[in-house]
Specification:
The protein has about 130 residues and is an alpha/beta fold. It has four helices and five strands. Strand 4, helix 4 and strand 5 form a beta-alpha-beta unit.
Length: about 130
């Protein structure tokens, strides 16, 4: 009887750990493409766009109105934004912005959008 109780506890623990790993590994942000963001900006929407590239990359050209917060500094600036706000993240190709999306989603932000094709896919206006 004792062995069966231990076996049940171990099985329940393993199932719980498996479920937790699936939940933690699930994507808790939405991917969008640059074209979708450009269309929303053209329609007059005021969007929060965070560009997570380094300052020299940002200075070379960025989406008008974007805020430059390099990926390495993002955690220190999270308190600037409401966890309920819709926030778009962009970088050069979508890799750093996906990491930023994971950071923000893991910090309780619920409406995070990763511009998955990044500035490489941006065909809208460019500010310098």
């Amino acid at each position: 009887m004792r062995r069966s109780s231990i076996l049940v506890v171990v099985i329940v623990f393993l199932l719980g750990a498996f479920a937790m790993s699936i939940w933690m590994g699930s994507k808790r942000y939405q991917d969008v493409v640059a074209r979708q963001v450009a269309e929303r900006l053209r329609s007059g929407e005021n969007l929060i766009i965070i560009d997570v590239r380094e300052p020299h990359e940002f200075a070379a050209g960025h989406i008008p109105g974007a805020i430059n917060i390099p990926l390495g500094e993002l955690r220190a600036h999270l308190d600037r934004f409401s966890p309920e706000a819709e926030i778009f993240l962009v970088c050069r190709s979508g890799v750093r912005s996906a990491e930023a999306a994971r950071i923000m989603a893991g910090s309780g932000f619920r409406r995070i959008r990763n511009i998955q094709d990044g500035m490489l896919g941006w065909e809208g206006p460019i500010a310098k």
